[in-house]
Amino acid sequence: MKTSDIRQKLHQYIDTAQEEKVKVIFAMVEEIEEADDHWQDEEFINELKKRETNYLTNTSKTYSLQQSVARAKKVVAKIKRK
Fold this sequence. Notes:
Helix content is 79%, strand content 0%. By secondary structure, it is mainly alpha-helical. The model has no long low-confidence stretch (mean pLDDT 91).
């Protein structure tokens, strides 16, 4: 589907959607806009560059997939016990 067709469908949907659905759509768009703002944030970009440099020079702690899964399972188990 072409972008112009998608835009037209979205306009039609918004024009006829219930008030609550319009509010949800708006909240989603706001969230997307806020996420895009990170790429304008110099502090955020600098932090990413620092992390990349640390990774490429092997000065940061990294985890294998198996280690990551094991850590995630521990957290889930801890949450379930509560």
